[in-house]
Amino acid sequence: MNQRKLYTLLKREYWEHRGAMKWTPIWIGASILAIMLLGWITGQSTMFRVEGADHLVEGGLKMLENNATPEQLRA
């Protein structure tokens, strides 16, 4: 395929689907941004602060094991 045909085909595609070439990158970018924002919110909500240091919640059972006394764990 020579360059002239390729240019003509691309130009025709642009004229037929003009809106798609503008809106598709915008929607994809907005989707990626929304997913990143949800991940950041999730990360912030699973973090807690103890005596000025940040700690990540690894799960309720792990936190129970770390804070419980041996007598409480045996019961």
Q: Main sheet? A: 2 strands, antiparallel
Q: How many strand elements?
A: 2
Euclidean distance between termini CA atoms: 78 Å
Beta-strand content estimate: 5-15%
Along the chain, the helix and strand elements come as: HHEEHH
Q: Structural class from helices and strands? A: mainly alpha
- By DSSP (H or I, 4+ residues per run), the number of helices equals 4
Topology (SSEs and partners):
Layout: H1 3-16, H2 18-45, E1 47-50, E2 53-56, H3 60-67, H4 70-74
Antiparallel strand pairs: 1-2
Provide structural commentary:
This protein has 75 residues and is mainly alpha-helical. The chain has one domain. It is 73% helix and 11% strand. It contains four helices and two strands. It has helices at 3-16, 18-45, 60-67, 70-74; strands at 47-50, 53-56. Strands 1-2 form a two-stranded antiparallel ribbon. The chain is rod-shaped, with a radius of gyration of 27 Å. The N and C termini lie far apart (78 Å).
Give a short overview:
It is rod-shaped and about 80 Å long. It is 73% helix and 11% strand.
Notable characteristics:
mainly alpha, rod-shaped, 73% helix, two-stranded antiparallel sheet, 75 residues
